[in-house]
Each structure stands twice: as structure tokens, then as C-alpha cells.
């Protein structure tokens, strides 16, 4: 998990960002370098001007979704398409029209501790995709139990 904290804007390689848009750019910077899991201390704002360049202009892909949690507000503007799971620990998930009045789409899920704050004329769409999180087959990754590898006693069965 890549941790981004508050600090000088533009120091993405140092793991800091200052404004919500800057933090969105920092996440995109690390997505372009292969990271897919993020904790961002402050607010995060995604729009057309701060998307990763390696994913065709979307935030993640169907085969490489993003897991992002933030201690601040989470905003999606313009016509952003985001794949993965997004969590805002504060009271608001924004569908922000500051970067345009488009229609952002989340393919996956998002979780908020509070309200969805619709701003502007656009609409947020959330699209369920059961294949996005491995529902089509067994789980994969570093911390997945291997069948037959777990033993809960010292003696043979």
C-alpha cells in the first residue's frame, strides 16, 4: 500500500501532496508506476487533468482495479472512469463539477461514512462488476491461503 501524506505539493516520489487535486495527481503518479493500493491522509479529487497516463485515461482498469482509502473527502469530476474500491473516512463523497459537469463512473464500489454531495449538473454512476474482485474464481494475491496448507494442531490428523 502506498501511503501519501500532507506535505509539499508535487513531491510525489517523496509520498506527499498538498491539495485535493494534487493528491489525485500523486495517486496517478504511483498508478503509472504499478501501485494499486493507496492510503491518502487528506482529500482526493480526480478529474480529467490528473488521471494516470498508463491506463488509457481511467483510474485503474478492469484487470487492475484500484483500492483507495482516504481520511478526507473523495471527489470525482469530469467524465472520470474509476475501477476498484474507494473509501472516504469523512462525511462526504463528492461528485464534483469543479473540473466540468461530466458524469463520473465507478466500476466497482465506494464506501462513505456520510452523504454523497452532488455538485453541478453531472451524475455519478456506480457499476457493479462481480469479476472485478475475483468473484469469477478463487482469490489471488500474496496473502491467500494455499489449499491444504493450514493446520490448526501439531499432531497428524
Order of helices and strands: EEHEEEEEEEEE
What strand line-up does the widest sheet have? 2-1-3-5-7-9-11
Quick one: overall form?
Answer: globular
How much strand content do the residues show? 25-35%
Query: What is the residue-mean pLDDT, rounded to a whole number?
Result: 80
The number of distinct helices, counting runs of at least 4 residues, comes to: 1
| Helical content (DSSP H or I, runs of 4+) | under 10%
Please give the radius of gyration in angstroms. 17 Å
Counting copies of identical and different chains, the oligomeric state is single chain
Q: In terms of structural class, how would the helical and strand content be classed?
A: mainly beta
Low-pLDDT segments, ≥5 res: 96-100
Compute the separation of the termini in Å: 38 Å
What profile does the largest beta sheet have?
7 strands, parallel
Number of strands: 11
Amino acid at each position: 500500500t502506498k501511503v501519501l501524506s500532507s506535505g509539499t505539493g508535487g513531491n510525489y516520489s517523496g509520498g506527499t501532496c498538498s491539495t485535493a487535486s494534487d493528491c489525485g495527481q500523486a495517486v496517478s503518479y504511483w498508478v503509472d508506476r504499478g501501485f494499486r493500493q493507496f492510503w491518502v491522509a487528506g482529500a482526493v479529487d480526480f478529474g480529467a487533468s490528473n488521471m494516470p497516463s498508463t491506463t488509457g485515461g481511467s483510474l485503474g482498469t478492469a484487470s487492475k482495479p484500484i483500492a483507495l482509502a482516504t481520511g478526507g473527502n473523495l471527489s470525482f469530476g469530469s467524465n472520470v472512469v474509476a475501477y476498484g474500491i474507494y473509501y472516504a473516512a469523512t462525511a462526504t463523497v463528492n461528485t464534483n463539477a469543479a473540473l466540468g459537469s461530466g458524469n463520473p463512473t465507478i466500476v466497482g464500489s465506494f464506501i462513505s461514512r456520510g452523504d454523497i454531495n452532488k455538485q453541478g449538473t453531472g451524475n455519478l454512476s456506480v457499476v457493479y462488476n462481480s469479476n472485478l474482485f475475483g468473484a469469477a474464481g478463487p482469490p489471488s494475491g500474496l496473502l491467500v491461503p494455499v489449499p491444504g496448507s493450514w493446520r490448526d494442531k501439531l499432531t497428524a490428523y
